[in-house]
Each structure stands twice: as structure tokens, then as C-alpha cells.
Amino acid sequence: MAASFTYHRNEQLPTVKAGYPGNKLFGRQFANGEALYNPDFSNVLRWKLLTENPQKAEKKADTWVPAVVDCTAFLRGTQDGLVWLGHASFGLRTGGVTLLFDPVLFDSAFLKRRHPLPCRPEDLAGIDFLLLSHGHRDHLDEQSVKLLARQNPQLRVLTALGMAPVLRGMAPTLAVQEAGWWQQYDLGPDAALDIYYLPASHWHRRGLADMNRVLWGSFLIRAQDKLIYFGADSAYDTHFEAIEKQFGPIDVALLGIGAYKPTFMMQHSHTNPHEAAKAANVLRAGHVVPMHYGTFDLSDEPASEPLRTLHDIAVGGMLRGELHAPAVGQVLPWPEWE
């Protein structure tokens, strides 16, 4: 007997893709497009207990970490810019509005930073919008959310369907707006930017009984006549084509390039550097900023391999957009980019 399914979206928000019925739910589990994906726990056991990393010695010898520069002055200032805080965490300012993406500001039992933050967590004040792409702990950190809620009473959270109950358990007073794929958030009548929640090919789990109960996705920001795409966590799939078809060429694409080995474990969760370059090319991105590498040890590839590989791809002419690989904390002047 086929599993029953329904479609779900936030009926208070506009859906920008014509004919899109909402995100497909099999029972209470969200799907990747039309197909339900449940990561196989046996792959974890195979990876951790039965697989020898062929790059084990190379990885151990590779002590590379991203350079880090202090970004406190930017955070306290007013100029527009984009700053990488490490992993998939970014700050973006446009026209006096400050956005923060997937902040993980503290170490935890399972996530130890390989480099310091480029600021004190206490310096992350004056944040207008907190964009949370999905619920995995390297993107959604409870201690970080609690701190940001205390320091930013005006903070508004833009996130995925099903996330509000998770966040209420962390910071009950946060204003949370959920969206499904292809939906535009309501920022108010005077907003100088547009923000959309868009597809990604991924999955959700934080506990033992919440598999795919919260949606995952990516973000698109339209500001100053530019399109900035935050790809979050995603495997390579057809959604990149669909996003380009809906919105046209992307000006700035923030795309993950790390945590891709072993392939049997990671291929349905993340893009490797070649896939990230392919995604950037499909998006017709004018500028590419890599992320999701160098900060946490999540996989088998050596630390320096993702960025080195992407650089080789760019030098070889296989990346159409301009590559920007900033130091952690370096401010990128994205409004000035042609």
C-alpha cells in the first residue's frame, strides 16, 4: 500500500513558483521534492566502524585552517558588506539592515571549532533578521540562539516549516516566521529587500523521533538590484536549475564545498567542490563565495582539500563566476561587485 501524502506551506505567505502546491509530506515527514529520503544509519556504522579512510595519513598531516581577521569594527559599524564567520555562518548588511545566517558561535560536545570566531559573540548585536536554513546542529545551535535572542530584542527569525516549536524551546519570545519552498517572507510594507525560502536536497534530524519533521532549504535575498543566494546544506540536484529558471542569473552564490567524503555517506547531504562549481555555473552566478569547510571536522577529506580543489577548478576555467575565498572575518564589499 502506497504511503499517504499531503502538501504543506504557509498559507499566509505568497508562493512565487506558479502551480507549486507546497512541500510534500509523507505522513509527518518532509520530502526532497517528490521523494522521501531517510538517511540509512547503517552507513554511519559502515563509515565509523568498517571503513578505513584512504586519506587518513594525509588528513592527519594537514593542519591548514582558514586565516582569521577581526570583524568587530564591521559589526559595530553601518557599512554594507558580507562577512564569513566560519562554516556556514555569515553576516550580511544592506542599507542598514543586518542579516545573520546559520550562526554557530560556540563549541559543543560534538562540534569543536578549528579556528576562533572573528569576533566575540557579544558583538553580534543590532541584528534584524536571523535566517535559519535547517535544524542540523552545525547550523542551528541552541546556545547561539539564546544569546542572540537576549542581545537582539528586535530580532525576527526567518526559517522553515516546522521550526517554530524547536525555537520556542530555546527562546520562547523570538518572533518566528516559517516558510515552505518557493515562498516569500513578509518583511513589512516598507522593506527595502525581499527574502525567499527555496529548495535544497537534504534532510532533518536533531533527536531520536524527529526525522524530517522540520523542513530544510536555502535562501535568496534580493537587495540593491542584486540576488544573493545562500545554498545552506544540499546535495547536487535539479533545484539549482529551477532556481535559475525562476529568478535568472544569481549575482552572489554562497555554496558549500566541504564534508563530502566518504561519498557513500555524504553524497545525499552536501556538494563536493566540483558539484558546487557545477551548481554555481547552473545558477549563472557572477560571484562565488565558498563555505562549509575549514571550521569543523565533519568528514574524511583533508582540511585544505575543498578550497584547494575549488581553486584549481577556477584556475582551469571551469568556474564561470569570480571566486572569492575570504579569510574568516574578512568583509566583502558585495554591492560594488559587477
UniProtKB/TrEMBL annotation:
Gene3D superfamilies reported for this sequence: Ribonuclease Z/Hydroxyacylglutathione hydrolase-like (3.60.15.10)
InterPro entries named among the record's database cross-references: Metallo-B-lactamas, RibonucZ/Hydroxyglut_hydro
Domain Metallo-beta-lactamase: 99-293
PANTHER family noted in UniProt: N-ACYL-PHOSPHATIDYLETHANOLAMINE-HYDROLYZING PHOSPHOLIPASE D
Protein name: MBL fold metallo-hydrolase
Origin species: Hymenobacter algoricola
